[in-house]
Amino acid sequence: MTSAGAQDAILEHVAAFNAHDSVRLRAGFATDVVWTTGADTFRGSDEVAEVFDPWLWALTPALEVLNLVVDGASASAELRETLVVDGATRTFHIAGFFTVVDGLITRAKIYREGSADLGGSD
Predict the structure, then answer these.
(1) CA–CA separation, 28 and 106 (whole Å)
(2) Residues 67-98: tens digit of each pLDDT
(3) Can you give the pLDDT at residue 116?
(4) Which residues are within 8 A (CB) of 99 and not within 5 positions of it... i.e. 6 or more apart?
(5) Could you give the CA distance from residue 8 to residue 33 in angstroms, rounded to a whole number?
(6) Which residues, listed in sequence order, are joined to residue 81 by a DSSP beta bridge?
(7) Angle at 71 between CA 102 and CA 112, to 5 degrees
(8) For the whole model, what pTM was predicted?
(9) Whether 2 contacts 21, CB under 8 Å
(10) Mapped to the 3 state alphabet, what secondary structure does 6-23 carry?
């Protein structure tokens, strides 16, 4: 995989996320993808697809890529996420580490700055 291929896959993932398009997001995952966020690990595209569900889209989340570094099949991204919780806009900084094979995300490890509990304070 070229660096351009991994970059394209991550940018497409962010675009699909910002469009709140679960089908498009799922199309970017390998069937055996492993997605870890916080203490939770999801295995396989069916489980990962459940992360990107109507509950999440109801928060009107959006991602902005602040930095993206790609080396072959590996990509590291610094992202800013905004979403609305109980009528208030909240902002989180996220670090994501991805592996992309044949244009599909096969592994992701996501770290959110502050609390990952959307109901609590940062």
Answers:
(1) 9
(2) 999 999 999 999 999 999 999 999 999 999 99
(3) 52
(4) 73, 74, 75, 105, 106, 107, 108
(5) 17
(6) 63, 92
(7) 90
(8) 0.88
(9) no
(10) HHHHHHHHHHHHHCCCHH
Question: Over 90: is that where the pLDDT of 18 sits?
Answer: yes
Residue owning tokens 């992701």: 108
Position 72, amino acid: G
Residues 102/111, Cβ–Cβ less than 8 Å: no
CA 121 centroid distance within chain: 21
Torsion of CA 22, 110, 67, 29, to 10 degrees: -40
User: What are 27's two structure tokens?
Assistant: 């199309």
Report the phi/psi class of residue 102: left, alpha or beta, with left for phi > 0 and alpha for psi in -120 to 50.
Answer: left
Half-sphere exposure of 54 (CA within 13 A, CB side): 0
Retrieve residue 8's tokens: 């394209």
Q: What type of residue is 46?
A: D
* CA 117 to centroid of chain Cα atoms: 16
